[in-house]
Amino acid sequence: MTLIKTSVLSAIATAITMINSFVVVKIIAVYIGPSGMAFIGQFQNFITVLMSFATGAINGGVVKYTAEYREDEQQKQKLWSTALRVSFIATLLTAGVISSLHHYLSAFFFKSDEFQSIFLIFSATLFLFVLNSLFIAILNGQKEIKKLVTVNIISSFVSLCLTTSFAYRWGLYGALLSYTTGQALVFFVTLVFVFKSQWFKFKFFTAKLDKNYLKKLSGYTAMALTSALTMPVSQMLIRDYIGQSISWEAAGYWEGVWRISNSYLGLVTTTLGIYYLPRLSEIKENKELRKEIFYGYKVILPIVISSSIAIYYLRDFIILVLFTEKFTPMRDLFLFQIIGNIFKIASWLLGFLMHAKAMAKTFIVTEVIFSLSFLLLSIVCLESYGIVGVTISFAVNYFIYLLVLVFIFRKIIIEKL
Prior knowledge:
By secondary structure, the protein is mainly alpha-helical.
């Protein structure tokens, strides 16, 4: 499937998901407010971190090697059986840690002991989260784009229904509860699509753990764990710093503009995940890689730039429609956040090469350095410019990151082959 076709299908799913996520944001804004928005952002980052540990952080490798051996049943049996066993063991360990520390986690993230049960429920449903994530990775590697799109759409409706009903009934607790149960419910939908696939066979998941694939996947474990312990943790620390040094309402403003960014960039990030990783994994020649990367820039960057400009000029309208008047101060955060978004997507088009070509060391070094620089720049800019400083640091950080990736991949994207 081509980038254009993938983008069209992704656009359909993203449009539906975007509308649903906007409704969710509105519900949270009305019933919970700016500070609640910040706490939910903290919890979502926490889920991202925990999911990397619970999956064994191998799903990127599952996508790559499934795409690479799509027609080889023997290799897929070894790969998927190994992935399932690694995920099961990692989930047991992670769930045990969460349930043991539920008192501390509630106090740390929500400054209260009222949310201890949220972490217990999350630990109980974690394996369903993990299985859903594994099956999604397999569908991606098998290039089952239509099924992925359908699952994403259903997932967004599940999130909408749960968040709306739970937040209305139980406020912040209900919103958090919806995030601990949503993907667990979606697992059963994903399971149906996997079972109905022509390539599905139970034997693919019943073989013994294969040491060769365990070693191959471990490279992706290092990369995924690095991602989980860098940017999401940096966001949590920055959000907490804003909450402590300015206010949790200010942290909520930043979370609000971050959610808008994630929503309108959803088409791009979904396309990159569904199309680019399997596609770049297949390509063996540098000349073809160079062609594919430039094609991605020609298709994707104009969309990002035009939508970013539109978002900026419509920011006041967007705030009133998606949030409430309490969120009006966030209008000052749009300019540099949007500039940063453009640099972010431009760098991600190159960054996916590190995943596709298993460049673990390069990925880990760049992720650690630029997550730390984002944190440090944010603290410095917060002291000088207030809450706007976080978005300034975001734009500067991704601009430098893009320059570094251009330097790393200059032979592919610049030099004639």
